[in-house]
Design a protein that fits this description.
By secondary structure, the chain is α/β, with parallel strands linked by helices. Among the domains are: about 15-215, Lambda Exonuclease, Chain A, CATH 3.90.320; about 230-285. Helices cover about 40% and strands about 10% of the residues. It has 13 helices and seven strands. The strands form two sheets. A five-stranded mixed sheet has the order 1-2-3-4-5. Strands 6-7 form a two-stranded parallel ribbon. A hairpin with a 2-residue loop joins strand 2 and strand 3. Helix 11 (about 335-340) packs across helix 12. The radius of gyration is 26 Å and the shape is globular.
Length: about 400
């Protein structure tokens, strides 16, 4: 995976700067951070890139491929499951490439310039495929947090604009197909848009992008804040959520369902902000700075055997049966599937596994799952109702 400096108006952060235009320049004043999850994703991308290059770009023998792969496998964060998940990505791309009568154009980790629509905007597309009048942009995401939809995905649309600018003089592109592959969540999201609609959207965001590049506009807190480096100490976010008591003025004495929805939305975002604030305060204290009224301490400790085998031998010598020292639990269907593979899982266990509905869960209206309706006894059927973040 090629190392590349991030653009101020990066495609991956576009959902943020398109909603909160001053955020890009504000983040520029703060140091970039990373995490183990981000580094794992970067390594998985490198393995995926190697496999795709071997398959479609750079013919290489087994010896060369294995030597390059072993270098990646020698890295500290490597996990064997990366091979399986990158194979899923390779299989998806292969089905598209091999589905054409003649070999299409394929580019891997392609530098894409969309500065025509966002000042100095550029990024790296994981995979670009062009055949006839159709352009494919495919993104590989190794995270297993939340499924990401390709529909109206601004990151993918900016990549598509960059790819169209690069190749439109060579190919009569009229249709763009986008896909996001998330193998650890067993999901692939696809979306299609006409070039005409894509270019219209590009023109629409031009003034917004220019405002973001200039650091102009108003700060607009929202769900996109969770990806912002300023999320913990942004004053606009603070003032938005500390104003929650404004709802106390609601009349008559019983608040309406509309007000309930508004309060829940703001309270949920408030909870996310408080979590970010606690993380910031803890790190600040651990770095030797002071947060008045707070301090960092060790949490409740957990007991652990220094040597489990030696400890259990003492117990058995004292007359305790070895069988009572261990627990035996059956693996869940999900663990079994991971252990034996999807193919054998389906063939052997299809008639022995059922999918049970989960407890009713409260989610925002934007969630794609079907709503439960006309179920006055739902709470009785499922017990206590859960409420989770989107």
């Amino acid at each position: 995976m090629s190392a590349e400096k991030h653009a101020l108006l990066s495609a991956s952060s576009s959902h943020k700067w398109l909603h909160c235009t001053p955020s890009a320049r504000l983040e520029e004043t703060l140091p970039e951070t990373t995490s183990q999850y981000a580094e794992e994703g970067r390594l998985a991308h490198e393995i995926a890139e190697l496999k795709l290059r071997k398959a479609f770009i750079e013919p290489m023998g087994p010896r060369t491929f294995n030597a390059k792969l072993k270098k990646l496998q020698a890295k500290d964060l490597y996990q064997d499951e990366m091979l399986k998940h990158t194979d899923t990505y390779l299989d998806y791309v292969s089905r598209i490439v091999l589905g054409f009568k003649s070999p299409p154009y394929v580019a891997i980790e392609k530098h894409l310039d969309y500065s025509k629509y966002a000042p100095e905007g550029f990024g790296t597309g994981d995979c670009i495929i062009i055949s006839g009048n159709t352009l494919y942009t495919i993104d590989f995401k190794y995270g297993k947090g939340v499924p990401v939809s390709a529909e109206q995905n601004t990151q993918m649309m900016l990549y598509a604009l960059g790819a169209y600018s690069e190749y439109s003089f060579l190919y009569p592109i009229t249709t763009v197909k986008m896909a996001i592959v998330q193998p650890r969540l067993d999901t692939i999201s696809e979306w299609e848009i006409s070039v005409e609609a894509l270019l219209t959207w590009g023109e629409h965001i031009k003034p917004i992008a220019q405002k973001a590049f200039d650091g102009a506009g108003e700060f607009v807190p929202g769900e996109w804040c969770r990806f912002c480096r300023a999320k913990s100490t942004c004053r606009a976010r603070c003032e938005t959520y500390t104003a929650l008591e404004d709802f106390g003025k609601a009349k008559p004495p019983f608040i309406t369902n509309e007000e309930v929805g508004q309060i829940l939305q703001r309270a949920r975002e408030l909870a996310a902000w408080v979590k970010d604030l606690e993380e910031y305060a803890l790190n600040t204290c651990l770095n030797g700075e002071e947060i008045p009224g707070w301090k960092a301490v060790h949490g409740r400790g957990n007991r652990a055997f220094i040597d489990t085998d030696a400890a259990f031998k003492v117990l058995m010598d004292a007359g305790y049966d070895e069988a009572i020292l261990y627990e035996r639990k059956p693996l869940s269907p999900a663990k079994i599937e991971e252990l034996i593979g999807k193919k054998d899982y389906k063939e052997l266990l299809a008639n022995y596994v059922e999918t049970l509905p989960g407890k009713p869960t409260l989610v925002p209206i934007t969630d794609k799952r079907e709503a439960i309706t006309n179920r006055p006894s739902a709470a009785e059927d499922f017990g206590s109702i859960e409420s989770v973040n989107e």
